[in-house]
Structure formats: structure tokens, C-alpha cells
């Protein structure tokens, strides 16, 4: 990895450079909640002043810029016996500035499923390849347990990654385009003092996390498959699906065909879906093999912390705690995992 030092003033120039010909998405404050706490969202920005790199977290992840909630996969038009099909991929350049390590790790996990597996999605890949990513280090967010699932640091999956050293940024460079983009502004090589300051900031951040006991979790989950813990939490679940919608790693979706009444046009539409919805597991003939909330809630946790580990040797969850924050029933991974650990010890 190459490192450079960038003054805060030069970073502003860097954003101005990006804004010249690239759509820039960054955390913006959109409101305050009932407690007066700022609410942030990843949105397009027009100038540097709109960007809030000191944001704690966002309610929604930046997943939508790679996996939109709804997108047309293809559209067809029919005229007599002649028909035409159109497929569009996103190729316009875009930059996302200010992603935290957990959200970049979330993209790396999505890459495994949507860009590198047996069925790569050209829609996802086109967005991923055309998105310039600038990440930034931050103090732990409330409820976040990214360190416990190995997602508090990131070594690839971005173009540039910044660590705030007070009057300057320590910038890690992870791609040719990141290196070339930095040529547009003044940077310098890190000195021994810069390296020390960077390592000190990383130590300070790492020391602030509250550990969550996830040791041997996949095996524990297999042992506790019939645990009453699942029913206890599922009885509170409202099957609203919000947890999956805000999750940076949930990628389940449904596809439907829409045809105009005169049969002249059709569209194949993909829409993100949640495994917590009542009809998620309904198959042809009307059979629903996960009709109750308990099996649906359990399925989500087994996918995140058991099935994905078996397939990719790492959990799908990056510990961002967005699902815990959005859930009106106070259902969240740390409490459920803690309950499973306690049940095991009883
Ligand atoms: S957000 Fe909470 S209530 Fe809604 S489906 Fe998820 S776990 Fe259930
Ligand atoms: S399951 Fe919850 S904590 Fe884990 S990545 Fe998804 S939203 Fe974040």
C-alpha cells in the first residue's frame, strides 16, 4: 500500500477536482432526530461545504448506489413479429466519499456474491467499476460491533482511504486511479511523525470498541438451532423487512415481468426484497416453507453468521448496527448473539 499526506486545504481542492466531471455522493446532514442528534444520509453533493465527514453513521447504507432498491433489468418492445430488447448498464463515473471501513467491507462481501461468484451481475459490476471510493476512519458508532466481526479495518476495496490526523489526512492509496487522482493536488511522503500519528489514531479508535463474543458462533448456532431464543425474539418481530433494507450486505431480491395492456412493451424489474416478509419463501403452487416469523428471523441470522461463513469463511454481517437502530421491536444482532451465548452456558 502507498501512503501520502494531504493537507485539509488540498483535500478540499481534491473534492473540487472530483466535482468537475463526476457525480459525488457523500454524507450530508438531512435533519435531527427527536433527541437533537444529527441524521445523515449518503446523497449527491454539489460542493465541499455539503460534505460532513465527521458523521457518526447513516440510517441507510450506500448500498443503493450499487444495488438500487428497484431497477429495470431489461425492456422489450414488440411490433407485429418484430421485437427489440434494451439492456442498460450504468457507466457514468461516480465517486462516493466518506465510506467507513464497515461499509467498504460490506462492498467486498457483495463483490464475492455479485461480482466473483458463478453468476456475476453485470449491473452490479458496472456500478462497482465506475465508482471511485474514498473511505475515512472514524470513532466507533453507537451500537456498532464491526471490530468483533473483523470489519473495523479495511485494506482493499477502495481507491483512497483517509485517516484524520488533525491538520492533515493520512491517505492510503489502493488503486491506479486513486494514485492518478491524487496527482491533481499537492501531497507529500509521510514522515516518521506522520506514521506514528496515524498508528496512534488507529490504536485510539481500536481501543474504544466494546467486544461482542462471537467466538465459534457458526457452531454455536448449529447447536442452538432449536433454541427458544429464536421464538423469544421472533414473537416481537413485525416482519416489516426494514432490517434487510438498511443492511449494507443484504442482497436478496425478486424479479417481475410487467407487460402493457396492448402487449406492445414489457419490462423485467428487479426489486430488493427481505427474507422477513411473509411471502419471501412462497414457491410455485403457493407453498410457503417459512410461514412463521421464527423461521424467517432465524434464517436471516443463519445466512449472516452461519451460511456465509461456510461459503466464504467470513460472516456476511459487518457489525454496522443499522438493523438494530431501525427495528421498532428492538431486535438486534448483539442481543440475539448474547442470548445464544448465555443459553449455551446455562
Ligand atoms: S426490522 Fe425488526 S421488526 Fe422489522 S423485520 Fe427486521 S427484525 Fe422484524
Ligand atoms: S445484519 Fe445488521 S449489523 Fe450486520 S451488516 Fe446488516 S445491518 Fe449491519
Detailed description of the structure:
The protein has helices at residues 8-21, 101-114, 122-129, 176-182, 192-207, 217-223, 228-234, 242-246, 293-312, 322-326, 333-345; strands spanning 2-7, 23-32, 38-45, 70-79, 82-86, 94-99, 131-136, 160-164, 168-173, 253-259, 265-272. The chain is α/β, with parallel strands linked by helices. The chain has a domain at 2-66 and 88-207. A seven-stranded mixed sheet has the order 1-9-8-7-6-2-3, with helices on both faces. A four-stranded antiparallel sheet has the order 5-4-11-10, with no helix packed on it. Helix 6 (217-223) runs antiparallel to helix 9. The model has no long low-confidence stretch (mean pLDDT 95). The structure holds iron/sulfur cluster (2 copies).
Helix proportion:
25-40%
Shape: globular
- Identify low-pLDDT runs: none
Please state how the strands of the largest beta sheet are arranged side by side. Answer: 1-9-8-7-6-2-3
If helices are DSSP runs of H or I spanning 4 or more residues, what is the number of helices?
A: 11
Largest sheet: 7 strands, mixed
| SSE pattern, N- to C-terminal | EHEEEEEHHEEEHHHHHEEHHH
Are any ligands bound, and if so which? iron/sulfur cluster
C-alpha end-to-end distance: 47 Å
> Could you tell me the number of beta strands?
11
Structural class, please?
Answer: alpha/beta
Query: What share of residues are in beta strands?
Result: 15-25%
Amino acid at each position: 500500500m502507498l501512503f501520502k499526506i494531504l493537507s485539509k486545504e488540498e483535500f478540499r481542492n481534491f473534492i473540487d477536482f472530483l466535482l468537475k466531471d463526476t457525480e459525488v455522493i457523500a454524507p450530508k446532514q438531512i435533519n435531527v432526530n427527536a433527541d437533537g442528534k444529527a441524521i445523515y444520509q449518503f446523497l449527491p453533493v454539489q460542493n465541499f461545504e455539503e460534505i460532513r465527514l465527521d458523521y457518526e453513521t447513516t440510517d441507510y447504507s450506500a448500498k443503493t448506489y450499487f444495488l438500487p432498491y428497484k431497477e429495470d433489468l431489461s425492456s422489450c418492445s414488440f411490433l407485429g413479429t418484430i421485437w427489440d430488447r434494451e439492456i442498460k448498464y450504468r457507466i457514468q463515473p461516480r465517486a462516493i466519499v466518506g465510506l467507513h471501513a464497515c461499509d467498504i467491507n460490506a462492498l467486498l462481501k457483495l463483490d464475492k456474491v455479485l461480482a466473483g461468484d458463478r453468476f456475476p451481475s453485470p449491473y452490479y459490476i458496472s456500478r462497482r467499476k465506475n465508482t471511485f471510493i474514498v473511505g475515512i476512519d472514524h470513532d466507533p458508532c453507537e451500537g456498532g460491533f464491526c471490530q468483533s466481526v473483523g470489519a473495523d479495518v479495511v485494506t482493499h476495496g477502495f481507491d483512497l482511504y483517509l485517516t484524520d490526523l488533525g491538520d492533515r489526512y493520512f491517505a492510503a492509496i489502493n488503486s491506479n486511479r486513486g494514485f492518478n487522482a491524487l496527482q491533481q493536488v499537492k501531497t507529500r511522503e509521510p514522515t516518521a511523525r506522520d506514521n506514528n500519528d496515524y498508528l496512534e489514531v488507529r490504536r485510539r479508535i481500536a481501543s474504544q470498541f466494546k467486544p461482542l463474543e462471537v467466538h465459534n458462533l457458526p457452531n454455536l448456532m448449529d447447536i442452538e438451532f432449536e433454541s427458544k431464543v429464536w421464538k423469544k425474539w421472533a414473537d416481537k418481530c413485525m416482519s416489516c423487512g426494514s432490517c434487510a433494507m438498511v443492511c449494507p450486505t443484504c442482497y436478496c431480491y425478486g424479479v417481475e415481468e410487467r407487460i402493457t395492456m396492448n402487449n406492445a412493451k414489457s419490462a423485467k424489474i428487479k426489486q430488493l426484497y427481505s427474507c422477513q416478509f411473509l411471502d419471501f419463501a412462497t414457491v410455485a403452487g403457493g407453498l410457503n416453507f417459512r410461514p412463521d416469523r421464527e423461521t424467517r428471523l432465524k434464517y436471516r441470522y443463519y445466512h449472516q453468521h452461519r451460511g456465509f461463513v461456510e461459503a466464504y469463511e467470513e460472516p456476511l454481517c459487518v457489525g454496522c448496527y443499522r438493523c438494530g437502530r431501525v427495528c421498532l421491536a428492538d431486535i438486534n444482532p448483539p442481543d440475539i448473539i448474547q442470548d445464544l451465548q448465555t443459553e449455551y452456558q446455562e
